């Protein structure tokens, strides 16, 4: 440190960081921060490009522990990532000819969720299946392995987006490679008629998709709500309509959409403030052209 200083040291040990490689911040989980430090100084991956093969080769296969959709048990499954096919696949048996699931890189997201999954290396992967979000939960006992998988997925997304948006700069594409959720936690909700009682559900705000689950580790959401922009008639209000009954938690939120109102309640005022801030952030952001197509699908869902 005395002879190099921070800037010179960074210029050396980060001289060849691939643009897709995830640079953790202080708010990221311990695993990402630890593996970044080990990659940089111990393994010197950003000095020697050949050491980046595990996540830059465009193909990767291996065994990961995957949580069963119905029984909740983690079982060893073979995963294959192939950029050429634009897909991540997993197989129920090592010698199986056909994959159990094919996840298109185009629609895939990965985010570390150690607390939710109950393992320090827990990774949540989501993709769209019949235009609904499907969650799978995986981990590997070796921290480097699971972080390599994470960065391999980001690399595959990066190369897909480079083709899809040929004029875009690296700086434009990198924020689209993977995303953490804006907010997660329990709220109560009621149905469209707003006459039935409120039920406690686990909510995930993923960009403009607000999803709710009976259990945080469910494979599929019980429902999804699209949150558009204020220009399109979406508003977030503190509190509930005066006549509302059947809720147990005192701190209400009303989301007004062009079609209906959604009513939620939070257990604490702090929760309510955080959820309102998350919703407001989305509502204040103008919609992108492709988001209008997503909104149209939500409106015409069977």
Task: Describe this protein with a few key phrases.
302 residues, alpha+beta, 27% helix, zinc-finger, GTPase activation
Can you put this structure into words, describing what you see?
GO terms for molecular function: GTPase activator activity; phosphatidylinositol bisphosphate binding; phosphatidylinositol-3,4,5-trisphosphate binding; zinc ion binding. This protein has 302 residues and is of the alpha+beta class. The chain contains 8 helices and 14 strands. It has helices at residues 5-13, 30-42, 53-56, 114-117, 143-164, 170-173, 269-283, 289-299; strands at 59-67, 74-82, 87-91, 101-104, 109-112, 123-129, 132-139, 183-189, 199-206, 209-213, 223-226, 235-238, 251-256, 261-266. The strands form 2 sheets. It has a 7-stranded antiparallel sheet with strand order 4-3-2-1-7-6-5. The protein is globular. 30% of the residues are buried. The model has no long low-confidence stretch (mean pLDDT 93).
Brief sketch in words of this structure:
The chain is 27% helix and 28% strand. With 302 residues, it is an alpha+beta fold.
Layout: helices, strands, pairs:
Blueprint lengths: L4 H9 L16 H13 L10 H4 L2 E9 L6 E9 L4 E5 L9 E4 L4 E4 L1 H4 L5 E7 L2 E8 L3 H22 L5 H4 L9 E7 L9 E8 L2 E5 L9 E4 L8 E4 L12 E6 L4 E6 L2 H15 L5 H11 L3
């Amino acid at each position: 440190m005395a002879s190099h200083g921070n800037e010179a040291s960074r210029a050396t040990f980060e001289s060849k960081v691939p643009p897709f490689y995830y640079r953790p911040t202080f708010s990221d989980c311990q695993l990402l921060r630890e593996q970044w430090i080990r990659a940089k100084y111990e393994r010197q991956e950003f000095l020697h490009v050949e050491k980046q093969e595990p996540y830059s080769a465009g193909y990767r296969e291996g065994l990961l522990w995957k949580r069963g959709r119905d029984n909740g048990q983690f079982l060893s499954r073979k995963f294959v990532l192939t950029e050429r096919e634009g897909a991540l696949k997993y197989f129920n048996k090592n010698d199986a000819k056909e994959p159990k699931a094919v996840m298109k890189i185009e629609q895939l997201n990965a985010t570390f969720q150690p607390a939710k999954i109950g393992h320090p290396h827990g990774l949540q992967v989501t993709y769209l299946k019949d235009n609904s979000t499907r969650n799978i939960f995986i981990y590997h006992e070796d921290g480097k392995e699971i972080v390599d998988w994470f960065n391999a997925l980001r690399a595959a997304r990066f190369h897909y987006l480079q083709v899809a948006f040929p004029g875009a700069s690296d700086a434009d594409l990198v924020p689209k490679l993977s995303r953490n959720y804006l907010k997660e936690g329990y709220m109560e909700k009621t149905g469209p008629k707003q006459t039935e009682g409120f039920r406690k559900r686990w909510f995930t705000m993923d960009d403009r998709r607000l999803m709710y689950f009976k259990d945080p580790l469910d494979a599929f959401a019980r429902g999804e709500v699209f949150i558009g922009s204020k220009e399109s008639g979406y508003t977030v209000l503190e509190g509930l309509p005066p006549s509302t009954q059947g809720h147990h938690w005192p701190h209400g939120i009303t989301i007004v959409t062009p079609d209906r109102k959604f009513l939620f309640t939070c257990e604490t005022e702090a929760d309510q403030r955080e959820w309102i801030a998350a919703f407001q952030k989305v509502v204040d952001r103008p919609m992108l052209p492709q988001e209008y197509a997503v909104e149209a699908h939500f409106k015409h869902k069977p």
